[in-house]
Amino acid sequence: MKTFPKFNLENQDGTEISNEKLKGKTLIYFYPKDNTPGCTTQACDLRDNMSTFNDLNIDVYGVSGDSKQKHKNFIEKHDLNFDLLVDEDFKLSETLGIYKEKKMFGKTFMGIERTSFLIDENSNILNVFEKVKPSDHVEDVKRWIEAND
């Protein structure tokens, strides 16, 4: 079983979150940018289904290259009920191989490929959800958990 790399990232309030602070199963989802349509859909769907994750004892963290202030604004604007972590230098995203060349509207740029990792309390990766569709993400995670719990 692969392990999630060691990390130490700040959340929107400047509190450091690391592997050592994770208590149980955790869904760490990586997304391109705060306040964009797909990322908002995904975040709001997670927010609206947080009771399901709480019932399953799964913590949720979002990660992007946005600043603490942008994360704070995103959380306040959409009343998000989970922390967003700052990976401004994309070190964690690069380590995981999800900071990639992307194309949109004929332009090529580097960015985070929407990917989620379900890990256990020992940072073992239980599952990787790749090329996540924002509107299907929660159902995909729930389906996997029901099939593998």
TrEMBL record:
Pfam families: AhpC-TSA
Domain annotation Thioredoxin: ranges: 1-149
Catalyses which reaction(s): a hydroperoxide + [thioredoxin]-dithiol = an alcohol + [thioredoxin]-disulfide + H2O
Principal EC category: oxidoreductase
GO cellular component, one term: cytoplasm
Keywords: Antioxidant, Disulfide bond, Oxidoreductase, Peroxidase, Redox-active center
Protein name: thioredoxin-dependent peroxiredoxin
Organism: Aliicoccus persicus
